[in-house]
Fold each of these.
Amino acid sequence: MKRPDFQAEIRELNLAYLMLAQQMLRGDRETALFRLGLSKDVADFIEGLSAAKLVRMASNQMLLPQFRFDDEQLARLMAGEGRDAASSSLHAAILAAGKAAEEAA
């Protein structure tokens, strides 16, 4: 059985992520830092990438974006499971913000 090669899809996703990250950082840096889960040093690096370096970095075989949740409860809340979708989303945001604060400390 032949295994699929996802290199083109990974490159495309990485490039979209890096371009979005640059746009977000240039628009509203503090919100972008929170939403992307980046440190200030990494944000500075990404924001300063030239187009050529952005494409080169995106061509890496590693997937650059990563999930910000590491437990099932947060994943379920983000998927809208719970009493109602609005409160689940709010609860997920509160949990994610708490995790970001814990990691920064």
Amino acid sequence: MTSNYKQLTQDVMANLAPLHKGVPQVMKGFGEMGKAAIADGALDAKTKELIALAIGVASRCDGCIAFHTKALAKLGATEAEVHEALGVAIYMGGGPSAMYASNAVAAFNEFLALTGNSAPSAPAQ
């Protein structure tokens, strides 16, 4: 587990640089696919990022957790929204997802602090 998700995103980007040079069309296509997948449609970008975070947790992908929590902090996600998405990930992925969900909480809080915002928690239902 990492404790510095900002650094993790920087490290991943640096580590991807050789791939951008070696297989530029593949990486360009991947980037375009990501933009298209997250674009507002029937679901808004925040909802799609919540889905992506849950999948990243269930897949045990620290880089995915870092990038999607960073996006969620910028999109104004609430702590309650992130926690509910993580609840679905835990349901779908069991105990290992619960461990990665705790990483996602730490990552979201780290990026939220960097934005200077504090996400309001939605009232429990």
